[in-house]
Specification:
Strand content: 5-15%
Bound molecules: NADP nicotinamide-adenine-dinucleotide phosphate
Largest sheet: 7 strands, parallel
CATH topology: Rossmann fold
Helix content: 25-40%
Low-confidence stretches: none
Mean pLDDT: 97
Number of strands: 7
Number of domains: 1
Radius of gyration: 17 Å
Structural class: alpha/beta
Strand order of the largest sheet: 3-2-1-4-5-6-7
């Protein structure tokens, strides 16, 4: 049985990853900040008896990441999905009103946490068959794609994580492990809002297909949910 670990698993895209992988018979390690409040996730656990185990994890807290890695030291993790992310409000992310504390927080969650997860779980991932790290980034982190300006905090945190996970791909190449960046599309979630172009189901189905076709030569690439290569 294959095992996937998902961060930010209690709602939005993360919750859908849990649902689809569990439906496919995977063992799912579903991480979220507050398991007691994760009603939708706990319902999935009930519906998929034995497939999903919920763990408490705030990815901004490195001690929590290290503690969870120790707790899961005997696990083999085929696929680690860095999904947890934040999008600061427009009040804290516009020219002239930049909230620099919010910027630092966005970097902790969107940029640093994926690397800390990789550093902490490298042994569980490299002993698996698939050996894959996936980081959910955004087209808003593409320098080439930036035609509208603004969103300094979010854009820079995602551009930076793109660079971080590209470096990771090079550093882990000799182990046969893969690191890729995925743009999920504009998705109708709390973050994407009601005008998003696709549902979480469509986004995750597409990303699972991309993940399912990954080979070592794809490591370090930046793909959209529909398999298109996204320019840096
Ligand atoms: N939706 C889109 O259109 C879109 C587009 C491009 C990229 N993305 C990316 O896709 C990923 C998922 O987004 P989404 O649309 O599903 O967002 P969402 O509905 O707002 O969900 C965000 C998830 O991240 C979790 N999270 C936030 N801070 C965390 C922390 N410190 N520790 C652990 N978990 C934390 C949230 O948990 P809590 O419930 O505890 O806050 C929640 O589970 C993000 O990385 C986002 O940047 C989304």
């Amino acid at each position: 049985m294959k095992t996937v670990l998902v961060t930010g698993a209690n709602r939005g895209i993360g919750l859908e990853f849990v649902k689809q992988y569990a439906n496919d018979g995977w063992h799912v390690l579903a991480c979220c900040r507050s398991p007691v409040e994760a009603a939708a996730l706990n319902n999935l656990v009930e519906q998929n008896k034995g497939h999903i185990v919920v763990y408490s994890l705030d990815v901004a807290e490195h001690e929590q990441i290290k503690r969870l890695s120790r707790e899961l030291s005997s696990e083999t993790i085929d696929l680690l999905i860095n999904n947890a992310g934040i999008y600061p409000t427009s009040r804290s992310d516009g020219f002239g009103s930049t909230d620099y504390d919010a910027w630092a927080r966005a970097f902790y969650i969107n940029t640093m946490a994926p690397l800390k997860m990789a550093e902490s779980f490298i042994s569980q991932v490299t002993k698996s068959n698939l050996k894959t790290f996936v980081t959910i980034t955004s087209k808003m982190g593409s320098v080439t794609d930036n035609q509208r300006g603004g969103s300094y905090v979010y854009r820079s945190s995602k551009a930076a994580v793109n660079m971080v996970m590209k470096s990771l791909a090079i550093d882990i190449e000799s182990t046969g492990a893969i690191s890729v960046l995925l743009h999920p599309g504009w998705v109708r979630t709390d973050m994407g809002g009601p005008n998003g172009l696709i549902t979480t189901q469509q986004s995750v189905m597409g990303m699972r297909q991309v993940i399912g076709n990954l080979k070592i030569e794809n490591s370090g690439e930046f793909y959209a949910f529909d398999g298109q290569v996204v320019p840096w």
